[in-house]
Fold this protein.
Amino acid sequence: MPIGPDSFVVRDSEPIATMLDDQVVMLSVRANAYFGLNDVGSEIWQMIGQPRRVEDICRMLSSAYEGPEDAVVRDVVEFLEGLLAHGLVRVVAQQEPQP
Amino acid sequence: MSPHLYRVHGLTLASDIELPELAPQRGPRDRPPDVTVRRGIVARRTDGEPAGVAFATRREHAVELDLPGIGRVRVTNGCEVTVEAAPDADPASLRAVLLGSVMGLLCHQRGLLVLHASAVAIAGEAVAFAGDQGAGKSTLTAHCVSAGARLVADDLLVVSLRPDQRPMAHPGVPGIKLWRDALAELGKSTDGLAPAWARAEKYHVPFAAEAVEAPVPLARICVLADDDAARDGRATRLRGSEAVSNLIAHTYRGEYLGVVDGRPRHLHDCARLAAATEVVRFARSRNPQRVAVTAALIARSRAA
Protein backbone atom coordinates (compact mmCIF):
# COMPACT_ATOMS: atom_id res chain seq x y z
CA MET A 1 0.00 0.00 0.00
CA PRO A 2 1.61 3.30 -1.06
CA ILE A 3 1.91 6.00 1.57
CA GLY A 4 0.10 9.29 1.01
CA PRO A 5 -0.67 12.38 3.09
CA ASP A 6 -3.82 10.69 4.47
CA SER A 7 -2.11 7.44 5.51
CA PHE A 8 -1.75 6.53 9.16
CA VAL A 9 1.64 5.05 10.04
CA VAL A 10 2.90 3.50 13.26
CA ARG A 11 6.17 1.90 14.36
CA ASP A 12 6.32 -1.85 14.06
CA SER A 13 6.93 -3.50 17.41
CA GLU A 14 9.76 -5.75 16.17
CA PRO A 15 12.80 -3.44 15.91
CA ILE A 16 14.86 -2.70 19.01
CA ALA A 17 15.86 0.96 19.24
CA THR A 18 18.39 2.90 21.26
CA MET A 19 19.19 6.61 21.33
CA LEU A 20 22.22 8.86 21.55
CA ASP A 21 22.17 12.66 21.20
CA ASP A 22 18.44 12.44 20.26
CA GLN A 23 19.27 10.16 17.32
CA VAL A 24 17.85 6.67 16.94
CA VAL A 25 19.75 3.50 16.04
CA MET A 26 17.67 0.40 15.43
CA LEU A 27 18.27 -3.30 15.14
CA SER A 28 15.77 -5.35 13.19
CA VAL A 29 16.54 -9.02 13.71
CA ARG A 30 13.82 -9.81 11.15
CA ALA A 31 15.45 -7.61 8.50
CA ASN A 32 18.90 -8.73 9.73
CA ALA A 33 20.08 -5.13 9.66
CA TYR A 34 20.86 -2.04 11.72
CA PHE A 35 19.40 1.38 10.87
CA GLY A 36 20.73 4.77 11.97
CA LEU A 37 18.39 7.75 11.73
CA ASN A 38 19.38 11.40 11.41
CA ASP A 39 17.82 14.22 13.45
CA VAL A 40 14.64 14.57 11.37
CA GLY A 41 14.25 10.81 10.95
CA SER A 42 14.63 10.37 14.70
CA GLU A 43 12.02 13.06 15.37
CA ILE A 44 9.56 11.31 13.06
CA TRP A 45 10.32 7.99 14.77
CA GLN A 46 9.46 9.59 18.13
CA MET A 47 6.13 10.83 16.68
CA ILE A 48 4.92 7.46 15.43
CA GLY A 49 4.89 5.51 18.66
CA GLN A 50 1.11 5.80 18.15
CA PRO A 51 -0.56 5.79 14.70
CA ARG A 52 -0.24 9.22 13.17
CA ARG A 53 -1.43 10.78 9.93
CA VAL A 54 1.40 11.62 7.50
CA GLU A 55 -0.11 15.06 6.92
CA ASP A 56 0.07 15.76 10.67
CA ILE A 57 3.71 14.62 10.83
CA CYS A 58 4.54 17.00 7.96
CA ARG A 59 2.68 19.90 9.57
CA MET A 60 4.57 19.42 12.85
CA LEU A 61 7.89 19.20 10.99
CA SER A 62 7.33 22.12 8.63
CA SER A 63 6.42 24.42 11.50
CA ALA A 64 9.66 23.42 13.20
CA TYR A 65 11.84 23.48 10.08
CA GLU A 66 10.11 26.22 8.04
CA GLY A 67 10.49 24.19 4.84
CA PRO A 68 8.09 24.47 1.88
CA GLU A 69 5.17 22.18 2.63
CA ASP A 70 5.20 20.09 -0.56
CA ALA A 71 8.94 19.40 -0.20
CA VAL A 72 8.39 18.28 3.40
CA VAL A 73 5.56 15.94 2.31
CA ARG A 74 7.73 14.44 -0.44
CA ASP A 75 10.69 13.87 1.92
CA VAL A 76 8.56 12.43 4.72
CA VAL A 77 6.72 10.05 2.40
CA GLU A 78 10.01 8.89 0.89
CA PHE A 79 11.48 8.35 4.37
CA LEU A 80 8.44 6.42 5.60
CA GLU A 81 8.35 4.27 2.47
CA GLY A 82 11.98 3.36 3.17
CA LEU A 83 11.05 2.31 6.71
CA LEU A 84 8.04 0.41 5.35
CA ALA A 85 10.18 -1.49 2.84
CA HIS A 86 12.30 -2.77 5.74
CA GLY A 87 9.28 -3.67 7.87
CA LEU A 88 10.06 -1.02 10.49
CA VAL A 89 6.65 0.71 10.25
CA ARG A 90 3.10 -0.37 9.39
CA VAL A 91 0.36 1.50 7.55
CA VAL A 92 -2.88 1.22 9.49
CA ALA A 93 -6.46 1.99 8.50
CA GLN A 94 -7.16 4.52 11.23
CA GLN A 95 -6.06 5.09 14.77
CA GLU A 96 -6.41 1.37 15.39
CA PRO A 97 -6.09 0.10 18.94
CA GLN A 98 -2.70 -1.54 19.55
CA PRO A 99 -3.00 -5.34 19.74
CA MET B 1 48.62 -32.48 33.65
CA SER B 2 48.41 -29.24 35.58
CA PRO B 3 47.13 -26.52 33.27
CA HIS B 4 48.86 -23.29 32.42
CA LEU B 5 47.30 -20.26 34.14
CA TYR B 6 46.93 -16.92 32.38
CA ARG B 7 45.16 -13.61 32.68
CA VAL B 8 43.66 -11.80 29.64
CA HIS B 9 40.70 -9.46 28.90
CA GLY B 10 39.88 -9.35 32.61
CA LEU B 11 39.48 -13.16 32.73
CA THR B 12 41.57 -15.88 34.33
CA LEU B 13 42.22 -18.79 32.02
CA ALA B 14 43.46 -22.33 32.72
CA SER B 15 44.69 -24.04 29.56
CA ASP B 16 45.98 -27.50 28.68
CA ILE B 17 47.52 -25.85 25.63
CA GLU B 18 50.50 -23.63 26.37
CA LEU B 19 49.78 -20.03 25.26
CA PRO B 20 53.15 -18.24 25.60
CA GLU B 21 51.65 -15.04 24.08
CA LEU B 22 49.62 -14.50 27.28
CA ALA B 23 50.58 -13.01 30.62
CA PRO B 24 50.86 -15.60 33.42
CA GLN B 25 48.28 -15.35 36.20
CA ARG B 26 50.00 -14.08 39.33
CA GLY B 27 48.88 -14.04 42.91
CA PRO B 28 46.60 -16.46 44.76
CA ARG B 29 45.12 -19.32 42.76
CA ASP B 30 42.39 -20.19 45.25
CA ARG B 31 39.51 -19.18 42.95
CA PRO B 32 38.49 -21.37 40.02
CA PRO B 33 39.46 -19.94 36.63
CA ASP B 34 36.88 -18.03 34.59
CA VAL B 35 37.75 -20.04 31.47
CA THR B 36 39.17 -23.53 30.92
CA VAL B 37 40.76 -24.63 27.65
CA ARG B 38 41.04 -28.39 27.11
CA ARG B 39 41.81 -30.75 24.29
CA GLY B 40 38.90 -33.06 23.47
CA ILE B 41 36.53 -34.34 20.83
CA VAL B 42 34.28 -31.88 19.00
CA ALA B 43 31.51 -33.29 16.81
CA ARG B 44 31.96 -32.88 13.07
CA ARG B 45 29.45 -30.57 11.46
CA THR B 46 26.67 -32.37 9.68
CA ASP B 47 24.87 -29.61 7.79
CA GLY B 48 26.59 -30.33 4.47
CA GLU B 49 27.93 -26.80 4.13
CA PRO B 50 31.21 -26.60 2.20
CA ALA B 51 34.40 -26.29 4.24
CA GLY B 52 36.65 -23.28 3.73
CA VAL B 53 35.05 -20.75 6.03
CA ALA B 54 34.88 -20.57 9.78
CA PHE B 55 31.39 -21.59 10.73
CA ALA B 56 29.47 -21.63 13.96
CA THR B 57 26.71 -24.05 14.84
CA ARG B 58 24.78 -23.75 18.05
CA ARG B 59 23.66 -26.51 20.36
CA GLU B 60 21.97 -25.18 23.46
CA HIS B 61 24.65 -23.14 25.20
CA ALA B 62 27.52 -24.41 23.08
CA VAL B 63 28.78 -22.97 19.80
CA GLU B 64 31.09 -24.96 17.53
CA LEU B 65 33.56 -23.45 15.11
CA ASP B 66 34.83 -25.47 12.16
CA LEU B 67 38.15 -23.98 11.12
CA PRO B 68 39.75 -25.52 8.01
CA GLY B 69 43.36 -26.56 8.60
CA ILE B 70 43.06 -25.72 12.31
CA GLY B 71 40.42 -28.07 13.65
CA ARG B 72 37.14 -27.81 15.50
CA VAL B 73 36.48 -25.86 18.67
CA ARG B 74 33.45 -25.85 20.97
CA VAL B 75 32.80 -22.91 23.30
CA THR B 76 30.25 -23.51 26.07
CA ASN B 77 28.59 -20.96 28.37
CA GLY B 78 31.43 -18.49 27.86
CA CYS B 79 33.67 -20.56 30.14
CA GLU B 80 34.64 -23.88 28.54
CA VAL B 81 36.72 -24.22 25.39
CA THR B 82 37.23 -27.69 23.89
CA VAL B 83 39.81 -27.98 21.11
CA GLU B 84 40.12 -30.82 18.63
CA ALA B 85 43.08 -29.75 16.53
CA ALA B 86 43.46 -31.04 12.97
CA PRO B 87 46.29 -33.63 12.79
CA ASP B 88 48.46 -31.28 10.72
CA ALA B 89 47.47 -28.04 12.47
CA ASP B 90 50.32 -25.57 12.89
CA PRO B 91 50.60 -24.72 16.64
CA ALA B 92 51.10 -20.96 16.06
CA SER B 93 48.07 -20.83 13.75
CA LEU B 94 46.00 -22.74 16.32
CA ARG B 95 47.01 -20.31 19.08
CA ALA B 96 46.26 -17.31 16.82
CA VAL B 97 42.72 -18.66 16.28
CA LEU B 98 42.24 -19.45 19.99
CA LEU B 99 43.32 -15.93 21.00
CA GLY B 100 41.35 -14.37 18.13
CA SER B 101 38.07 -15.80 16.83
CA VAL B 102 37.56 -18.23 19.72
CA MET B 103 38.23 -15.57 22.35
CA GLY B 104 35.87 -13.22 20.49
CA LEU B 105 33.11 -15.81 20.50
CA LEU B 106 33.69 -16.55 24.19
CA CYS B 107 33.48 -12.85 25.07
CA HIS B 108 30.21 -12.52 23.12
CA GLN B 109 28.81 -15.54 25.00
CA ARG B 110 29.70 -13.79 28.27
CA GLY B 111 27.94 -10.62 27.07
CA LEU B 112 31.17 -8.58 27.08
CA LEU B 113 31.56 -5.63 24.73
CA VAL B 114 34.50 -6.53 22.50
CA LEU B 115 35.77 -4.10 19.87
CA HIS B 116 37.91 -4.75 16.80
CA ALA B 117 40.45 -2.28 18.08
CA SER B 118 43.91 -1.88 19.52
CA ALA B 119 44.52 0.42 22.49
CA VAL B 120 47.30 2.23 24.31
CA ALA B 121 47.39 3.97 27.69
CA ILE B 122 48.66 7.54 27.93
CA ALA B 123 48.79 9.32 31.29
CA GLY B 124 46.46 6.77 32.84
CA GLU B 125 43.77 6.91 30.14
CA ALA B 126 43.23 4.54 27.22
CA VAL B 127 42.93 5.58 23.58
CA ALA B 128 41.58 2.91 21.23
CA PHE B 129 42.19 2.61 17.49
CA ALA B 130 39.32 0.87 15.73
CA GLY B 131 39.37 -0.22 12.12
CA ASP B 132 38.92 -3.07 9.71
CA GLN B 133 41.62 -5.61 8.92
CA GLY B 134 44.51 -3.70 7.33
CA ALA B 135 43.43 -0.28 8.64
CA GLY B 136 46.76 0.17 10.42
CA LYS B 137 45.64 -0.38 14.05
CA SER B 138 48.61 -2.51 15.06
CA THR B 139 51.23 -0.40 13.28
CA LEU B 140 49.98 2.83 14.86
CA THR B 141 49.76 1.11 18.25
CA ALA B 142 53.34 -0.17 18.03
CA HIS B 143 54.61 3.30 17.13
CA CYS B 144 52.71 4.81 20.08
CA VAL B 145 54.33 2.24 22.40
CA SER B 146 57.74 3.08 20.90
CA ALA B 147 56.98 6.73 21.68
CA GLY B 148 56.29 5.97 25.35
CA ALA B 149 52.64 4.86 25.57
CA ARG B 150 51.75 1.60 27.37
CA LEU B 151 50.11 -1.24 25.46
CA VAL B 152 46.55 -2.17 26.50
CA ALA B 153 45.43 -4.53 23.72
CA ASP B 154 46.01 -5.36 20.06
CA ASP B 155 43.17 -6.18 17.66
CA LEU B 156 40.71 -7.41 20.30
CA LEU B 157 39.69 -4.95 23.01
CA VAL B 158 37.27 -5.81 25.81
CA VAL B 159 35.52 -2.79 27.35
CA SER B 160 33.49 -3.16 30.53
CA LEU B 161 30.53 -0.90 31.30
CA ARG B 162 29.37 -0.41 34.85
CA PRO B 163 26.77 2.16 35.85
CA ASP B 164 28.93 3.83 38.50
CA GLN B 165 32.25 4.10 36.68
CA ARG B 166 33.87 5.08 33.41
CA PRO B 167 34.17 2.48 30.65
CA MET B 168 37.28 0.40 31.33
CA ALA B 169 39.65 -1.01 28.70
CA HIS B 170 40.99 -4.41 29.77
CA PRO B 171 44.53 -5.63 29.15
CA GLY B 172 44.61 -8.03 26.21
CA VAL B 173 47.41 -10.15 24.81
CA PRO B 174 50.67 -8.33 25.77
CA GLY B 175 52.01 -8.34 22.22
CA ILE B 176 51.33 -6.85 18.80
CA LYS B 177 51.05 -8.65 15.47
CA LEU B 178 53.11 -6.77 12.87
CA TRP B 179 54.07 -7.24 9.26
CA ARG B 180 57.78 -7.53 8.41
CA ASP B 181 57.92 -4.05 6.83
CA ALA B 182 56.17 -2.47 9.83
CA LEU B 183 58.81 -4.07 12.06
CA ALA B 184 61.55 -2.59 9.89
CA GLU B 185 59.97 0.88 10.27
CA LEU B 186 60.15 0.42 14.05
CA GLY B 187 63.80 -0.53 13.80
CA LYS B 188 63.10 -4.09 14.97
CA SER B 189 64.37 -7.21 13.24
CA THR B 190 62.48 -10.50 12.93
CA ASP B 191 65.32 -12.32 14.74
CA GLY B 192 63.91 -14.43 17.54
CA LEU B 193 60.30 -13.60 16.67
CA ALA B 194 57.77 -16.29 15.87
CA PRO B 195 55.48 -15.93 12.85
CA ALA B 196 51.96 -15.11 14.03
CA TRP B 197 50.74 -18.12 12.08
CA ALA B 198 52.15 -20.67 9.66
CA ARG B 199 54.30 -19.21 6.87
CA ALA B 200 53.10 -15.70 7.75
CA GLU B 201 55.10 -12.57 7.04
CA LYS B 202 53.32 -11.24 10.12
CA TYR B 203 55.05 -11.68 13.46
CA HIS B 204 53.89 -11.78 17.04
CA VAL B 205 56.03 -9.16 18.79
CA PRO B 206 56.00 -9.46 22.60
CA PHE B 207 55.51 -6.16 24.46
CA ALA B 208 55.08 -7.60 27.96
CA ALA B 209 57.33 -5.00 29.59
CA GLU B 210 55.36 -2.15 27.97
CA ALA B 211 51.88 -3.58 28.66
CA VAL B 212 49.50 -2.46 31.39
CA GLU B 213 48.43 -5.12 33.89
CA ALA B 214 45.21 -3.53 35.15
CA PRO B 215 42.14 -2.02 33.42
CA VAL B 216 42.45 1.59 32.24
CA PRO B 217 39.60 4.13 31.85
CA LEU B 218 38.77 4.44 28.15
CA ALA B 219 38.77 8.11 27.13
CA ARG B 220 38.55 7.99 23.35
CA ILE B 221 37.87 5.64 20.44
CA CYS B 222 39.53 6.66 17.16
CA VAL B 223 38.01 5.11 14.05
CA LEU B 224 40.95 5.08 11.66
CA ALA B 225 40.67 6.66 8.21
CA ASP B 226 43.30 7.25 5.53
CA ASP B 227 44.01 10.81 4.43
CA ASP B 228 47.42 11.82 3.15
CA ALA B 229 46.46 15.49 3.51
CA ALA B 230 45.84 15.12 7.28
CA ARG B 231 49.54 15.11 7.98
CA ASP B 232 49.70 14.82 11.77
CA GLY B 233 46.23 13.37 12.15
CA ARG B 234 42.87 15.08 12.33
CA ALA B 235 40.15 14.01 14.75
CA THR B 236 36.47 14.71 13.98
CA ARG B 237 33.97 13.99 16.72
CA LEU B 238 31.21 11.54 15.79
CA ARG B 239 27.85 11.91 17.49
CA GLY B 240 24.47 10.27 17.67
CA SER B 241 23.62 7.41 15.35
CA GLU B 242 26.93 7.78 13.51
CA ALA B 243 28.94 7.15 16.70
CA VAL B 244 26.80 4.16 17.67
CA SER B 245 26.89 2.72 14.13
CA ASN B 246 30.69 2.93 14.09
CA LEU B 247 30.95 0.96 17.34
CA ILE B 248 28.56 -1.67 15.96
CA ALA B 249 30.58 -1.89 12.74
CA HIS B 250 33.87 -2.20 14.64
CA THR B 251 32.76 -4.96 16.95
CA TYR B 252 35.15 -7.93 17.03
CA ARG B 253 33.60 -10.88 15.16
CA GLY B 254 30.22 -9.15 15.21
CA GLU B 255 28.84 -11.97 13.06
CA TYR B 256 28.93 -14.21 16.16
CA LEU B 257 26.50 -11.93 18.04
CA GLY B 258 23.53 -13.35 16.17
CA VAL B 259 24.65 -16.90 17.00
CA VAL B 260 24.56 -16.16 20.75
CA ASP B 261 21.40 -13.95 20.61
CA GLY B 262 23.56 -11.06 21.78
CA ARG B 263 22.58 -8.31 19.35
CA PRO B 264 19.91 -6.45 21.40
CA ARG B 265 22.16 -6.19 24.45
CA HIS B 266 25.10 -5.24 22.24
CA LEU B 267 23.11 -2.42 20.58
CA HIS B 268 22.36 -0.85 23.97
CA ASP B 269 25.97 -1.36 25.12
CA CYS B 270 27.29 0.43 22.02
CA ALA B 271 25.00 3.40 22.76
CA ARG B 272 26.13 3.46 26.40
CA LEU B 273 29.79 3.34 25.40
CA ALA B 274 29.35 6.07 22.77
CA ALA B 275 27.68 8.24 25.43
CA ALA B 276 30.46 7.67 27.95
CA THR B 277 33.51 8.17 25.69
CA GLU B 278 34.52 10.32 22.75
CA VAL B 279 34.15 8.55 19.42
CA VAL B 280 36.12 10.29 16.67
CA ARG B 281 37.03 9.65 13.07
CA PHE B 282 40.81 9.91 13.06
CA ALA B 283 42.19 10.71 9.61
CA ARG B 284 45.92 10.40 9.16
CA SER B 285 48.54 9.59 6.56
CA ARG B 286 49.67 5.96 6.19
CA ASN B 287 53.03 7.15 4.90
CA PRO B 288 55.60 5.33 7.11
CA GLN B 289 57.46 8.52 7.98
CA ARG B 290 54.22 10.24 9.01
CA VAL B 291 53.00 7.31 11.15
CA ALA B 292 55.91 7.70 13.57
CA VAL B 293 55.29 11.45 13.88
CA THR B 294 51.54 10.98 14.36
CA ALA B 295 52.17 8.29 16.99
CA ALA B 296 54.62 10.52 18.85
CA LEU B 297 51.99 13.28 18.97
CA ILE B 298 49.35 10.82 20.23
CA ALA B 299 51.73 9.54 22.90
CA ARG B 300 52.12 13.15 24.07
CA SER B 301 48.30 13.57 23.99
CA ARG B 302 48.56 16.09 21.17
CA ALA B 303 46.81 14.45 18.20
CA ALA B 304 44.23 11.68 18.67
